[in-house]
Write a structure and sequence with these properties.
By secondary structure, this protein is of the alpha+beta class. It contains 11 helices and 16 strands. The chain folds into 2 domains: about 290 residues, 3-Layer(aba) Sandwich (Aminopeptidase), CATH 3.40.630; about 110 residues, Alpha-Beta Plaits, CATH 3.30.70.360. Bound molecules: zinc ion (ZN).
């Protein structure tokens, strides 16, 4: 074994105790007391692994071990240790603690890296507290937007206040921590959060890229009226129109999407939302993603047409607001090649698959080449206390992370 699986298991179990809910769940919201406690504990593990660790102004925990050739671009490994309010034990933590284990094992195995290595536990990846995630990594990359520190949580606490309470002094005016060329590669291991590896009966996969989402908010406006008196032909029912659009969208993605296209309407608001009033206004979200940008664009155009035609036929006014548009970000071929060679040596028979969810790696891809390793998780369940990954699978994934990190750090 390349890494110490027992130690990794112990760390995962100990971390799962912080913010524990029920038998298997965790709640470690960004910048919370539990988050701070977790950061302190993990910082201790970094130091045991031989890393010099610090917490930056965004709440990121960063550990560093110097290489023998300090002028070379560095290798960065990492993921996150914050969680959803009703989250699981493996999301983020497998990769963050796995990265520390890699460095710890390298030292124990007598390997001194040529490149310096940094391990990062990125702060607020999940985004549930302030309704905007991948915060820490965007801070490092200089990609935070104005006003982000003024975003409030449900209690009315701003991010700035929360970070102060957490114990750091946030500052958006500084220059990014990393420039292009500073980092040779970023590697992240994560549980798959999907069912593909389980379906293929493989413990570990190599990620091809992170698919880019388009997020839209669609508003349909009709006319309210008494549910008992307005005859059917005279109605401008926004809810019936919305239902028709959602059904057609689902059918469109299923019949005309590529193998990797997924489309979801996950949230809807109905006004005035009363059982005896015809719905005047309906607002719903659209999440459309694909690793294949051409396929996504084609479907997006068709969706716009569906919204336009359906609204017209139901006599509704429609408006489409674009909330997010991200392009797919592909993993570097040279990193995938190294992973492929190493997984073959380890006998993992690892398939290549794409990532539907985004990760810290998505942002890192704007400053350096990146690679990702997925670990099988039960039924693809995540963001849920039922989230589960076999320790054996995590060890295999971290073994591949180790082998890849050793190759790159020595190159
Ligand atoms: Zn995650």
């Amino acid at each position: 074994m390349l890494i110490n699986g027992d130690r990794l298991k112990r760390h995962l179990e100990e971390l799962a105790e912080i913010g524990k809910i029920g038998e298997t769940g965790v709640c470690r919201l960004a910048h919370s007391k539990e988050d701070r406690q977790a950061v302190e504990v993990v910082k201790g593990w970094m130091e045991e692994a031989g890393l010099t660790a610090k917490i930056d102004g965004f709440g990121n925990l960063i550990g560093r071990v110097e290489g023998t050739e300090p002028d070379k671009p560095i290798l960065v490994l990492g993921s996150h240790i914050d969680s959803q309010p009703y989250g699981g034990r493996f999301d983020g933590t497998a990769g963050a603690l796995g990265a520390i284990e890699v460095v710890h094992s390298m030292r124990e195995n007598g390997i001194t890296p040529a490149r310096s290595i940094e391990v990062i536990c990125f702060s607020d990846e999940e985004g549930s507290r302030f309704n905007k995630g991948i915060f820490g990594v965007r801070g490092l990359a200089g990609m935070l937007e104005e006003g982000e520190l003024e975003r409030k949580d449900k209690q009315g606490i701003t991010r700035r206040e929360a970070l102060k309470e957490f114990g750091v002094e946030p500052d958006l005016s500084g220059s990014p921590a990393y420039q292009k060329g500073d980092i040779e590669a970023f590697l992240e291991l994560h549980i798959e959060q999907g069912p593909v590896l389980e379906q293929k009966n493989r413990p570990v996969g190599i990620v091809s890229g992170i698919s880019g989402p388009i997020w839209l908010t669609v508003t349909l406006e009709g006319f309210a009226g008494h549910a008992g008196s307005v005859p059917m032909p005279m109605r401008q029912d926004a809810l019936v129109g919305a239902s028709e659009i959602i059904r057609k969208f689902d059918e469109l993605v299923k019949t005309e999407g590529s193998e990797t296209t997924v489309g979801t309407v996950g949230s809807m608001q109905v006004f005035p939302n009363s059982r005896n009033i015809i719905a005047e206004k309906v607002e719903f979200t659209v999440d459309l993603r694909d690793i294949d940008l051409e396929a996504r664009t084609k479907l997006e155009e068709k969706l716009y047409k569906i919204i336009e035609e359906t609204s017209a036929s139901f006599d509704l006014k429609s408006e489409i607001k674009e909330d997010t548009r991200s392009e797919p970000r592909y993993c570097a071929d040279w990193i995938k090649d190294i992973m492929k060679e190493e997984e073959e040596k380890l006998g993992l028979d690892a398939p290549t698959l794409m990532s539907g969810p985004f990760h810290d790696a998505l942002i890192m891809s704007y400053i350096c080449d990146y690679g990702m390793i997925f670990v099988r998780c039960e039924k693809g369940i995540s963001h849920n206390p039922l989230e589960f990954a076999e320790m054996e699978d995590i060890e295999k994934g971290v073994g591949l992370l180790y082998a890849t990190a050793v190759r790159i750090s020595q190159s």
